[in-house]
């Protein structure tokens, strides 16, 4: 388990997923994509489930997406999370790869806390765009989501 920042959990980085987090640290949202058939896949893994190729590339995404689903966690939660509940946890469908859905949180600004957006403002299908910031000071930069206007 990665070292938590102020009680919040950092992602666990494995060999297949390491490039995702290296790009994230540079502010780029990239998705592992088959170099043979062009299908994006997530979570990262060695072999393409469509054509069984082991050749891959990391395709840069626009960073735009839509809320595919969301939940509003309430305690019991880990203490750091209980302190900011209720907040939101969203699944975002990427505009550039609609079968890819990333878990995250909608926040008011890149470094804002988990409870910075009232869950009542969220709607399935709402447009969002990615930003990268640690979930808590000292943590790893992770994809977070801002609501798009309109
Ligand atoms: Zn393939």
TrEMBL record:
Annotated SUPFAM superfamilies: Nucleic acid-binding proteins
Taxonomy, superkingdom: Bacteria
UniProt xrefs under InterPro entries: ChsH2_C (IPR002878), ChsH2_Znr (IPR022002), NA-bd_OB-fold (IPR012340), Thioester_dehydratase-like (IPR052513)
Domain ChsH2 rubredoxin-like zinc ribbon: 21-55
Gene3D superfamilies noted in UniProt: 6.10.30.10
Positions of the ChsH2 C-terminal OB-fold domain: 58-132
Classification via PANTHER family: BLR3430 PROTEIN (PTHR34075)
Protein name in the entry: DUF35 domain-containing protein
Organism whose genome encodes this protein: Streptomyces clavuligerus
């Amino acid at each position: 388990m990665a070292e938590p920042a102020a009680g919040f959990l950092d992602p666990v980085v494995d060999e297949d997923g390491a490039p995702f987090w290296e790009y994230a640290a540079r502010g780029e949202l990239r998705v592992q994509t088959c170099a043979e058939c062009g299908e994006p896949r997530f979570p990262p893994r060695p072999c393409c489930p469509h054509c069984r190729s082991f050749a891959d590339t990391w395709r840069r995404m626009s960073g735009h997406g839509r809320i595919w689903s969301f939940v509003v966690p309430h305690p019991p939660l880990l203490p750091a999370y209980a302190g900011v509940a209720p907040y939101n946890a969203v699944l975002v469908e990427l505009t550039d790869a609609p079968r890819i859905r990333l878990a995250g949180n909608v926040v008011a600004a890149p470094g804002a806390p988990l409870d910075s957006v009232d869950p009542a403002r969220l709607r399935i299908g709402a447009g969002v765009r990615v930003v990268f910031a640690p979930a808590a000071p000292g943590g790893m930069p992770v994809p977070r989501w801002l609501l798009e206007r309109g």
